[in-house]
Amino acid sequence: MIWIRGLLVAGVLAISSTASAGAWTPAPNHGYSKFWVKWHWGWGFVDGDGGRHRIGNYHDVTFATYGDLGIAPGLAVFWHSDLVRFYSLEDSRDDSANLHISPGDPALGFRWQFVRGDRLAMSLELGARAPIADAEPVQVVYARNDPHEAVGALQVGDGAWSVRPVLSFGYAFDSVYLGSSVSYQYRARGYDDRLAWSAEVGMTFNERSGGRLRASGSYSLFNGTAERSNSPNGRGNGSSWTGLAVELDYRLTGKWYAGVTIEGGLGAIRRLSGGPVISLSVATQY
To answer: How far apart are CA 48 and CA 136, in angstroms?
Structure first.
């Protein structure tokens, strides 16, 4: 199938799709928490002009968490952060591999569900992300061709504060729901602002399992003054992508769930390494 082949075209930074509650908010004193590990297996590198380069073996493994809590009818507070990130990049000049470890950049915000019908939901979200991880390059990325041309530099942090308002829409049928969102991300330090969107359909298969198909994109607007990055993980300034994700959930017991997600890029990939992204998660409602 075409969309399955598309999953393997290029890896994406699907932070928002992995940790989104959509347009709905939990009831006061109730909420949702999720913990997951994400593995990005990098296949090559796409530069800012769309040129593709063969590079050394690249992997990044991230442990992350997300949660939200209802604090008033229609109003919730949420948090999201990568807890720790592990990056392994092979130096194409001598095939040696280097490991880099970094904390994540935490985000905190509020979601207001201003439309609260029986099936229809719409919400506004506002969150800010702090640049905890070091944004200085930690390793030069060399192409596999001879001579080994430098095509980028691995960064472990984004390096700039950001503020992101999000408008979300959701509609629930009996066993199917539809969701979509659009957001604008302001970034400090002269970084380019970003425009992002998502659209998904989810289905309950039975009393224990369900799944989602989600398309999403995030695009640099090239309106900043700061130098743009060329990191295999897309961190820093200037990366863009359009991607697709398939997610399956299974209820383990009570309100505890396990999930698996496979993500990949479909097009408009810039300043990012290709390759699939696989996530395993555990979540609970309370």
So the answer is: 19
How far is residue 264 from each of residues 52, 61, 98, 130, 241, measured CA to CA in Å? Answer: 16, 15, 25, 26, 10
What token pair was written down for 149?
Answer: 């041309």
> In this predicted model, what pLDDT tens digit does every residue of 118-144 receive, in sequence order?
899 999 999 999 999 988 999 999 999
Torsion sign, CA atoms 183, 25, 246, 66: positive
If you average pLDDT over residues 67-93, what whole number do you get?
A: 96
Taking the C-alpha atoms of residue 80 and residue 258, their distance in angstroms, rounded to an integer, is 18
CB 11 within 8 A of CB 45: no
Quote the DSSP letter at residue 233.
T
Pairing of β 96-103 and β 272-274: unpaired
pTM attached to this predicted model: 0.88
Retrieve residue 18's tokens. Answer: 């992995």
Q: What mean pLDDT comes out for the span 21-48?
A: 93
Element spanning 126, H or E? strand 120-129
What is the spatial distance between Cα 23 and Cα 102, in angstroms, rounded to a whole number? 31
Segment 209-261, tens digit of pLDDT? 999 999 999 999 999 999 999 999 999 999 999 999 999 999 999 999 999 99
Residue 4: predicted pLDDT? 27
CB 108 within 8 A of CB 77: yes
Per-residue DSSP letter, 94: T
Q: Are 141 and 149 in contact (CB under 8 A)?
A: no
Q: Quote the tokens at residue 111.
A: 């979601």
In the 8-state DSSP scheme, what is residue 193? P
